[in-house]
Design brief:
The structure holds two protein chains of two kinds.
Chain A lengths: L10 E6 L4 H16 L4 H22 L8 E8 L2 E8 L23 H8 L2 E7 L2 E8 L10 H34 L3 H16 L3 E7 L5 E7 L13 H9 L3 E2 L18 E9 L2 E10 L7 H47 L10 E8 L7 E7 L5 E8 L3 H17 L7 H18 L4 E8 L5 E7 L5 E3 L7 E2 L4 E2 L12 E5 L5 E5 L16 H7 L8 H16 L7 E8 L5
Helix pairs in contact in A: 1-2, 2-3, 4-5, 4-7, 5-7, 7-8, 8-9
Chain B lengths: L4 E5 L3 H11 L5 E5 L2 H10 L4 E5 L7 H8 L10 E6 L6 H6 L4 E5 L3 H13 L1
Helix pairs in contact in B: 1-5, 2-3
The chains are: A alpha+beta, B alpha/beta.
């Protein structure tokens, strides 16, 4: 046996993972190689057993401490004989009795060395930095014959066709990935993809029907010229079937379809592929060819590949759209919150008889509560509290509109009912078109400090207490419907005398419609009982204590906006 | 289009086979070289109408082969398609200076390779 065996020029070489499943695959490859060259049939069973043992040993023992390691398996058959070599990443020094059968006939292992040594003429073990290598040499009674050139060439042609198809699909994937990254929209991406696909398929028409988020079908199409008819806006029977079964249809006999079927036109070739993502049907992709050769297997695979990619791209685009929608909503909310914050007064009118303070906390980024305090030209101070039914930008815009409208009519600061009537007429149209309404309360504080005038549009009555009281009580107003309900409503004034040091509170429902930790509602009466206890001697402290105390009751779980405007009649003019 | 001669140069046999397989439908004469040196021998000895050459050849690489070919009689105005791997992004300027007509990045589309070759030979 000469060293020329070891050159392995005439043979095959494989790089393998240590998977026992590879043994059978390798033996199949080896048998085919040897059969093509006339290896003696009666030698195969012994060779198969010995090579299987060598591979098993390399996988089981050689890779035991190197599970991520690789095997090199190669063989060569020349006039000089057959050489087989297996290299594993381990280390193995064969014991002296390696080539013998185990003495215990019931032993479960130990026969590998015997089987190998029994078949091969020479067995060599080498250990190096690269691992353990066993080289097996065998004289063969016949020399290898040249393989059947025509058969090999035919196989090579098939392999090359497969390689060409794989390249086509792989190139399409890379190119379509690039299109996805550079397209400004999913629609533009689809136009590019279908154009490219039609070119690669050398076909007349390619189209895709994809279901949009609103459930409607969207058609994307690329056709060779304008004479190709646009697909109808309904799914054909075949398209419905592909969509329902999620199975690819490669039908080169479109002529068999019923006369009424629009796909019948594609006599030469027709392919319909399902577009889906993780099993969820999204649509279909269709290619039709009127004349010429039917679609090849490679072209079918290409359509499949692109259908899969479109499924991923469509899902990604839909997720991006949803994400952008959420971001847009968040941006809108932020804008609305800025508008709303800008509406709230940071300074309160100064008066020798009245002191005013207010606070507003929104449950979310933007709430519907709002308050204002302003001085009319005749010295009346107008206090406004409102709750716009609704959230977000529309509510903030309405708050802004209400504030601006009220400030524009400060000449009516002495007559809050008239002002509410005017505001209602002005805003009713806008409110109706948005299906929204506003509860509001206006209180006009007289310049001499003697009384206040109240007008109420569906809001809760003001509450009043004197420091030391056990409970606050309501100041009756002439309540009427909220703004925006009836455009012709004539609101009425109610007048109330305010005792010196009395504290009047205007509140929104977030101050009493709240639940404590046990789920029990605080309620209007309980709020009335608690308000005097939160008085600390000044209005800013009072409003702050109220809000903090309510937070404690609710354990920081605010579910609604809270607004409190309080004013007090000073004991004497400053 | 009259029959032209295309020289395919790649040191990977399967790649030469794939390109030959793809371009067979063009009807042109296809000859092969497995190295830059072999390609230069062929360009020096016969008229070639189009050179398809891999950038990453062992030995003289594709770009150096093109530069050397430009000094040969048959190579001065030879249209060249350079086959590159993904990631070979830094060679475009040098390749254009060497007169490369077009780039094809592996894995390429065989259909588009045929279209490109037909376009170049029609010019």
């Amino acid at each position: 046996m000469s060293e020329s065996h070891l050159e392995f020029r005439e043979g095959a070489e494989y790089d393998l993972s240590p998977d026992l499943g590879n043994v059978e695959v390798m033996l199949r490859q080896m048998k085919r190689y040897l059969d093509e060259r006339g290896f003696p049939e009666d030698e195969w069973s012994g060779l198969q057993l010995a090579v299987a043992e060598a591979l098993n040993n390399a996988i089981i023992h050689g890779c035991r401490e190197h599970p991520e390691g690789r095997l090199r398996f190669r063989w060569a058959w020349s006039d000089a004989g057959l050489a087989v070599q297996v290299r594993d990443p381990g280390h193995f020094e064969p014991p002296d009795d390696w080539h013998e059968l185990p003495t215990d006939p019931l032993a479960e292992s130990g026969r590998g060395g015997f089987l190998i040594s029994d078949f091969f003429d020479d067995v060599r073990h080498d250990n190096s930095e690269r691992g353990h290598e066993v080289t097996l040499l065998k004289s063969v009674s016949v020399a290898p014959q040249p393989p059947n050139v025509a058969a090999v060439e035919e196989e090579l042609q098939l392999m090359t066709q497969d390689l060409s198809d794989s390249y086509e699909s792989l190139a399409a994937m890379f190119n379509i990935s690039a299109l996805l990254a550079t397209s400004k929209s999913f629609d533009e991406f689809m136009d590019s993809v279908l154009g490219r696909l039609r070119n690669l398929l050398s076909t007349d028409l390619v189209y895709a029907r994809l279901r949009r988020a609103d459930g409607q079908w969207q058609l994307f199409m690329d056709r060779v010229n304008e004479s190709i008819p646009t697909p109808p806006d309904y799914l054909s029977v075949q398209e419905e079937a592909v969509l329902a079964a999620q199975q690819f249809l490669s039908n080169d006999r479109a002529g068999d379809l019923p006369e009424s079927d629009p796909l019948r036109h594609w006599q030469a070739g027709l392919m319909i592929g399902p577009v889906s993502f993780q099993g969820k049907p999204i649509g279909i992709i269709v290619s039709g060819r009127g004349e010429g050769a039917p679609f090849t297997a490679g072209q079918t695979n290409l359509l499949r590949t692109i259908a899969d990619f479109v499924g991923v791209a469509h899902t990604t685009a839909e997720l991006n759209r949803q994400r952008e929608e959420q971001l847009r909503e968040l941006r809108e909310l932020e804008i609305a919150a800025q508008i709303q914050r800008s509406l709230l007064p940071t300074e309160f009118p100064a008066s020798p008889h009245w002191e005013i303070h207010g606070i507003c906390e929104s449950a979310r980024a933007v709430g519907g509560d709002f308050f204002d305090a302003m001085v009319g030209p005749d010295g009346h101070i107008l206090v406004l509290i409102a709750d716009v039914m609704g959230k977000g930008v529309p509510a903030a815009m309405l708050s802004s509109l209400l504030r601006a409208s009220a400030r524009a009519r400060l000449d009516l600061a002495h007559d809050p009912a008239q002002l509410l009537t005017e505001l209602n007429r002005l805003l009713a149209g806008d409110l109706a078109s948005l299906s929204m309404f506003i509860t509001a309360e206006l209180i006009s504080l007289s310049p001499d400090g003697n009384h206040c005038t109240i007008a109420n549009a569906g809001h809760s009555d003001p509450l009043v207490f004197l420091p030391g009281d056990t409970s606050a009580r309501e100041i009756s107003s002439v309540g009427d419907v909220p703004l925006g309900v009836l455009p012709d409503t004539e609101y009425q004034n109610a007048t109330a005398e305010i005792a010196p040091e009395a504290v009047v509170c205007l509140v929104t429902d977030g101050l009493f419609e709240l639940e404590d930790a046990s789920g029990e509602m605080l309620g209007w009466d309980a709020l009335c009982e608690r308000l005097p206890g939160w008085w600390q001697g000044s209005l800013p402290e009072f409003t702050s204590t109220c809000i903090t105390s309510l937070k404690l009751i609710q354990r920081d779980h605010q579910s609604d906006d809270r607004t409190l405007v309080a004013f007090t009649r000073k004991t004497s003019a400053a | 289009m009259s029959e032209k001669t295309i020289l395919i140069t790649d040191d990977e046999p399967h790649m030469r086979r794939l390109i030959t397989f793809s371009l067979k439908r063009t009807g042109h004469t296809l000859i092969q070289a497995d190295s830059g040196e072999a390609a230069l021998d062929l360009i020096g000895s016969q008229a070639i109408d189009l050179l398809l050459i891999d950038f990453g050849l062992k030995g003289i690489n594709g770009l150096d082969t093109i530069t050397s070919a430009r000094k040969l009689e048959h190579g001065q105005d030879l249209p060249v398609v350079l086959l590159t791997a993904r990631g070979d992004t830094g060679i475009k300027d040098d390749a254009q200076s060497a007169g490369v007509s077009a780039f094809i990045t592996k894995p390429f589309s065989p259909v588009e390779l045929v279209q490109l070759v037909n376009d170049l030979l029609a010019e």
